Amino acid sequence: MRFVSTRDSSREVSFKQAVLDCLPQDGGLYVPSDNAEDLRRWILYANESTSFANLAGTLTSALINEEFSPIICEAIATKAFPVDPVLKRLDSNLFLLELYHGATGTFRDYGISYLTATLETILTMDSEKSILLDATSGEMGACMASALRGKRLVTSVLVCPKGKLRGIQESDFVWNGGALYPVEVDGTEEDCHNLVRDIFAQRSLVEKYNLTVANTANIGRLLPQAFFYTFAFSRLKKHISGDIYYALGAGNYGQLVSGLYSWRLALPVNGFILPSTPYLLQDLKGNCMMPDSIVPLEHRIKADPSDPLNIERLEHIFRANALMLRSFVYPANITKEQKESACKELFVKYGIYADSDLSAAYAATLMRTDKTKDEDGAVVLVSCNAPSLDVDFIRHNTGETPVMDGELGRAFETTETGRPAIKPGDQEALISVLNSLNLLRIF
Does the pTM exceed 0.85? Predict the structure, then answer.
């Protein structure tokens, strides 16, 4: 598989380049080229006994066999995915795919772990090193720390508001021999994002420090999410003979994009249901529309390296097949009251603690029964985060409080760095940190 920019399909790059230098200089985002592989025989071969790691290793090998051997691909997936997602049957036509059984109770565990394992492999083969530079409100700390333990060639510099860092052990800090260098900012989350944007706007700094990101602007973080749907199908296919739909929250559209990539790779799926947003609407006829598409790419600002929105990747898919927008993506206009009612219904009928995103996905499903009438079909609700991460919403609607187990609780304990915070907009302080890695980890 080769990759192109959403704004220029004439120049293809390798998977390695798309991961290491994650932002095309034309301002777009990397996407798979239009000549996508057909992975039908691998997808149909997988069954209920196939682990997620084995499935991911096989699909990785099939996708990038020109760059990595099957043994290397299997090793990447085995290291990245020690825990499988969980598919539960709620009734004859409704399933729940839980993606939060990793170290920190969030679907990001899978994508970030895959990205860092891939990076470590690439850098080992090339005798190079790289820095992941990301902004966060704090919750990404535990996920990055878990994924980077044991890595020697990848360092994460996390920029977050002062006092918000969570789930990091002292041994994870670079100055204690780990792979994580947190930089606290005496300001807001947006101040943190602006600092990261400012650094990536200077191409000389990106090249000097071999900078990339761990968010979904990096195709290496987004691509493994496509494996979720293949895994679900491997468990579904013995029980379901009809149409299959996936219902998910909107988020930054990374899950929807990766689901559509699964379809392009020959995954049997009939559509995706999600709540409407200002970027992805349901028109008066019930069809999907994207208002931003009327703005030419050359008139848009560059893709955000710090807080990406995957709408441009959706547009790229739909430009290749305009009819797919109407026949494959089904947004639903839902209200706050409908979302709260959906949360209550999932709890009463199925004993499910549904967070805000899962409740919105279920509410959207209830609104789009026009597409899910097949008695032999199924709707799969995609649950991205542990219910205990959205306690207030769940307690408000069910009167119950989901319990956070001890391991997950430790992943969200506040972390003290013992280092002074920097001021908002202080690029020099952040550049000084990047420079210091030359000494602390012999970059």
Answer: yes
